[in-house]
Design goal:
This protein is of the alpha+beta class. The chain folds into three domains: about 110 residues, no CATH class; about 60 residues, no CATH class; about 140 residues, no CATH class. It is built from 13 helices and 14 strands. The chain is globular, with a radius of gyration of 21 Å.
């Protein structure tokens, strides 16, 4: 019990969060970051779990103006809006009211929804293409897409942060990569380097059985062959051809996500393919990627926060964001 109390005392300092509430063996903490809300759940005997939720997702849920409604957001996180103007978060079936010390966080969420309701005026449409008026990518290209929701997200980001900068990773920065740079995945030299690095890493650091299972499954389903398996791999030229064929099945937004995952988090092409084709979830991906880091470390927070935006860029860019706000009642019926 003493060690559990010590952990609860350390979490606010280590993670820079405030305690929202506690119920028996579970305690929830949270804080607002630049571009997202960060929640830390601690359960005695199980440890820490984390949730990094972009402002846009919170704002979009609140702006729907439905009373007593639960929105299921990515990675098992839920937001409940109540008719009395209260908000609650739902994690692992537990409902936590944002009041008391967490009231300021709820106020910031409502403020984000207000910003979303006005920022949409920046988005104009013509012939099925949506554009954020007055905005350019870092390379001077129009900030435009066939996805209205992606443009709405970038317009919101502009209003929330008061400027668009590719240095602050988010939807705008991801779009700059998408629009301004030739896709590196089109170069066989790039694929060769990715595979060689992965093969060398797997040889020096034999993967877990769980990863091997995922790697075999994604190769069998997407490639139709195995470029790698424990202790062996294809000749590199043949492996590059198989990888190129698999990547050709990804749409342009997924290919940009692939570039971002590799460039920001490092190699592991088979894991990237698995998460982008939904063979594993982004929650699985971040857990796998952060396993070697301390939960409160800068490296862990970087991976989790950037992964949340890479996921959001894909969901919005592929016009699939209607699936972001699942109706729990309908799901259970």
């Amino acid at each position: 019990m003493r060690s559990e109390n010590l952990i609860l005392e350390m979490i606010p300092t280590d993670f820079d969060v405030i305690q929202i509430d506690s119920d028996e063996d579970v305690t929830l903490f949270g804080a607002e970051r630049k571009g997202l809300f960060h929640f830390v759940r601690y359960e005695a005997g199980s440890g820490v779990s984390q949730y990094h939720i972009p402002h846009y997702l919170i704002a979009h849920a609140i702006s729907r103006n439905e009373q007593e409604h639960l929105y299921t957001l990515p990675n098992g996180f839920g937001l409940m809006t109540r008719g009395n103007g209260q908000l609650a978060v739902v994690i692992c079936g537990e409902c936590w009211l944002l009041d008391g010390s967490a009231g300021s966080m709820a106020n910031r969420m409502f403020r984000a929804a207000e910003i979303l309701n006005t920022s949409g005026k920046r988005v104009v449409s013509e012939n099925g293409v949506y554009t954020v008026a007055g905005a350019k990518t870092q390379g001077g290209n129009p900030v435009s897409s066939k996805s209205r929701l992606l443009m709405e997200g970038i317009a919101f980001e502009w209003s929330l942060l008061r400027r668009l900068s590719a240095k602050q990773f988010g939807l705008y920065s991801a779009l700059c990569t998408h629009r301004d740079f030739p896709c590196a995945l089109d170069k066989k030299s790039c694929l060769k380097g990715m595979l060689e690095n992965d093969f060398e890493f797997y040889e020096a650091n034999p993967p877990s059985e769980d990863f091997v299972r995922v790697a075999m499954a994604v190769q069998d389903s997407l490639m139709g062959c195995r470029v790698w398996e424990p202790g062996a791999h294809m000749p590199i030229k043949q492996a590059v051809g198989a990888l190129a064929a698999a990547l050709s099945k990804l749409d342009p937004v997924q290919r940009t996500q692939m570039v971002l995952l590799n460039g920001m988090h490092g190699g592991n092409v088979l894991l990237h393919l698995a998460v982008l084709t939904r063979m594993v979830t982004f929650e699985y991906y971040t857990q796998f990627r952060t396993a070697e880091y301390q939960p409160d470390s800068e490296d862990e927070q970087w991976i989790r926060s950037t992964a949340s935006y890479i996921q959001l860029f894909g969901d919005l860019g592929r016009a699939e964001s209607t699936q972001l706000f699942g109706d729990l009642d309908r799901a259970e019926s």
